[in-house]
Amino acid sequence: MSEGGKEMASLPVPDELVAEIFLRLPTPADLVRAATSCVSFRRVAAHRSFVRRFRKLHAPPLLGLLDGGQTFHPAVPPHTSAAAASAAALVADFSFLPDTAHAWAVQDSRDGRILLHGAEITEMLVCDPLHRRYLLLPPIPDDLAASVEDPFPLPPQPWRQIFLANPGDDEPADETSFRVISMAQCKTKLFAFVFSSSSGQWRALPSQRWNDLIAGWLPSTDTLFRFREYSYGCFYWRTDCDAEKNMLVLDTRRMEFSSTESPPEAKYSYGCMVEAGENRPGMFVLTDGVLSYSIGQNDGRSWQKEKTISLGSRHYLIGSTERYLLLYKLRSSWPGSDFYTLDVKTFQLEKMCSASAFRPPKLCTYSNFPPSLLSLPTISSGVEKEAEEMLVKGCAASSSG
Predict the structure, then answer these.
(1) Using alpha carbons only, what angle is made at residue 50 by residues 44 and 55, rounded to the nearest 5 degrees?
(2) Count of CB atoms situated within 10 Å of the CB of 186
(3) φ, ψ for residue 81 (rounded to 5)?
(4) How does DSSP assign 252-321, residue by residue?
(5) Is there a contact between 281 and 293 (Cβ–Cβ < 8 Å)?
(6) Is the peptide bond before 78 cis (omega within 30 degrees of 0)?
(7) How far apart are CA 297 and CA 304, in angstroms?
(8) Phi/psi zone of residue 361: left (φ > 0), alpha (ψ -120 to 50 degrees), beta?
(9) Distance from chain centroid for Cα 62
(10) Per-residue pLDDT at 101
């Protein structure tokens, strides 16, 4: 466009408007491509406040699986996360962890963090293998640990579980905040302790009697709640007792235990929880090669079957994330398994990776943004705070000069 024969200079687009446009890009890969087009775009996309906003709107990709022996099984082509998984596999490892009497064993993974324990389950740490940081957790104080009554005469697992949870509403909502929960199922009561990375301390949740949670329920060594799932801020457990249809629930927003019923299809089969949308949980159940999908209703107790998918024989459920169902299929020609993801929204089934073992023990999913401008440390080392303080002091010195 011209005026009086002269070209009019285009008006610069404010950074605030560029940020709003970038937030509406469909995938992190689109953002990375846009950011590389010019210096000003990269400046906007790399700003810490923008990265935090973008990460809240876009879940990190599922990069692969971790087994208990710290082995990473990255997604491989043609899986949609293959490129990101390959980049992460080149950087992430566990070689920076402190020495212990026995190798650190992977227990759980959430939001790019890995929870491990040492020779004893009381020896715990949380690490970020992508940024090579870790936090060694203090032991549960003796007075809290001593409150656990009537434990089962078993090794620490499975009557005792440790797992990661998101920070509470009263804690800083930043990318380095998290909680660790230690839960003990005893003969008459349920006990739980919560560690907060913000306070650096453990606290006890009120213990509850089993009969108050599930009428007439008394656990035994054969009927413990073992299978943990997650959906919309709640953890769910099912027992391997076929006669029990109730699930144990922990709402991490209120830090309260309760119980709810599972879908009828799950009575004799293992089920995996996902997020179905509109704050409603979904559950996949695999029976005789047929996968059924049910969604929890607004009454909080009933379920409605939405879909069935025929997978055929030799398929088994592993677990799930909020977005994906994880399965494995035993090979028929030689030993080993192939692992698959099923997208909850599109129901697209993709092969993710393979393993020579039938099924590596203690598998955890690993989701994170690969090394890029979206990759932020998930554990604080104090460096960020020191850098901010130095920047403030430098700005003050400059203004006074």
Answers:
(1) 130
(2) 17
(3) -95, 10
(4) TTTTEEEEEEPPGGGGSS-EEEEE-STT-EEEEEEETTEEEEEEE-TTSS-EEEEEEEE--TTEEEEEE-
(5) no
(6) yes
(7) 7
(8) beta
(9) 10
(10) 59
Which pair of tokens denotes residue 60?
Answer: 């990190």
Residues forming beta bridges with residue 195, ordered by sequence position: 180, 202
Residues in the chain, total: 401
Whether 108 contacts 137, CB under 8 Å? no
Is 303 in contact with 294 (CB distance < 8 Å)?
yes
Tokens of 271: 């089920």
Give the side-chain half-sphere CA count within 13 A for 268. Answer: 2
Sign of dihedral through CA atoms 113, 114, 115, 120? Answer: negative
List, for residues 344-372, the tens digit of each pLDDT value.
Answer: 989 999 999 988 765 555 788 999 888 77
Mean pLDDT of the chain: 82
For residue 340, is pLDDT > 50? yes
Cis peptide before 158, with omega less than 30 degrees from 0?
Answer: yes
pTM: 0.85
Total Cβ atoms within 10 A of residue 170:
7
Residue with tokens 């009969």: 211
CA–centroid distance for 358 within its chain: 24
Q: Give the separation between CA 41 and CA 22, rounded to whole angstroms.
A: 9
Phi first, then psi, for residue 113 (nearest 5°) are -100, 150
